[in-house]
Write a structure and sequence with these properties.
This protein is α/β, with parallel strands linked by helices. It has ten helices and 14 strands. The strands form three sheets. A six-stranded mixed beta sheet has the order 6-7-8-3-9-10, sandwiched between helices. It is elongated, with a radius of gyration of 25 Å. Bound molecules: adenosine-5'-triphosphate. Adenosine-5'-triphosphate (ATP) binds next to helix 1. Belongs to the ABC transporter superfamily. GO terms for molecular function: ATP binding. This is ABC transporter ATP-binding protein.
Length: about 300
């Protein structure tokens, strides 16, 4: 089942279109990564789905319910905007207060548990005004998940966090997915998206220009693979034939006594090459395939 579905969703500010009619489907249980340069329209798109701003036209549903709809509030989790942090409250009071405001009161025990999940267990009684940027991010994530929603929107969840905290949040996001939740996240950290997300959409100037798994994006962006084989010495009697054959198997062939590298069109070719080595009594010890990173693909857009 699709937990997010949008049809021709548009947003304009005055006469300026910002979102140009997005059709998107996100399946239950996905960690969906939404990428785009500054100003691409990611926050505007999320803000429409979470009911913060109204679409100019088009429609969307979340968890099968047409939005925007107050009934959805209990089932979706949203990180609060920085303007809604109450600096004079401590973390527990803050969570209680914002939860009560949205009509979903929570207990102190729930607050403590969720603050532990985001790594703020040492800061329960510290005033939010004294929190660092990264700590506020963690508090925002705690707010988004405290009522155990089915669908969680995380806008740049780890920006401003130290490496250890970011890893803790990555694990938390994976745990949310393992418990059947769907996470829709934006990030400028392409490495994070590559590691975490089952599906990735790249947004440009208010439109989604590419969407798919890492494998699908890779096969779109690069139709060739750079492969390096580490192998045993090639017997002299086989060398000429084998090199001739390798030259037809791919391009940019480079060889040493114990390694060969070339660029091939697809993965099947790699299997063929290993068979050819074996036929010539050459043992293949290691195969390295250089695949494009999300960063390389993103920069192509
Ligand atoms: N209230 C507003 N009035 C007019 N234009 C706006 C408003 N809010 C956003 N925009 C414009 O909409 C476009 C998309 O902005 P948005 O904040 O959605 O981008 P983003 O992809 O989230 O960027 P970032 O990565 O910097 O957070 C930008 O050109 C921005 O200037």
């Amino acid at each position: 089942m699709n937990v997010i579905e949008t049809k021709n969703l548009k947003k304009s500010y005055g006469a300026t279109p910002v979102i140009h009619g997005i059709d998107l489907a996100v399946e239950r249980g996905e960690i969906f990564g939404f990428l785009g340069r500054n100003g691409a329209g990611k926050s505007t798109f999320i803000n429409m789905l979470t009911g913060i701003i109204r679409p100019t036209s088009g429609c969307f549903s979340l968890l099968g319910v047409e939005g925007p709809n107050q009934r959805l509030k209990k089932h979706i989790g949203v990180m609060p905007d920085y303007s809604s942090f109450y600096n004079s409250m401590n973390a527990i009071k803050h969570l209680k207060f914002l939860s009560a405001l949205s009509g979903m009161p929570v207990s102190t025990a729930q607050c403590k548990a969720v603050l532990k999940m985001v790594g703020l267990e040492q800061d329960l009684s510290k005033k939010v005004g004294k929190f660092s940027f990264g700590m506020k991010k963690k508090l925002g994530i705690a707010q988004a998940i405290i009522h155990e929603p089915e669908l969680i929107f995380l806008d740049e969840p780890t920006s401003g966090m130290d490496a250890e905290s970011a890893l803790q949040i990555h694990q938390l996001i994976r745990d949310l997915q393992a418990s059947g939740k769907t996470v829709f996240m934006t990030s400028h950290n392409l490495f994070e998206v590559e590691k975490l997300c089952s599906t990735i959409a790249i947004m440009k100037e208010g439109a989604i220009v590419k969407k798919g798994s890492m494998e699908e994006l890779r096969s779109y962006y690069r139709s060739t693979l750079e492969v390096k084989f580490k192998h045993s010495a090639i017997p002299e009697s086989e060398a000429e034939n084998l090199y001739d054959w390798l030259e037809t198997a791919g391009s940019d062939l480079k060889t040493t006594a114990s390694s060969s590298s070339l660029t091939v069109g697809n993965e099947r070719k790699i299997a063929e090459i290993i068979r050819a080595f074996t036929k010539c009594q050459v043992d293949v010890f290691r195969v390295e395939v250089n695949e494009p990173s999300l960063e390389e693909m993103f920069l192509e857009e």
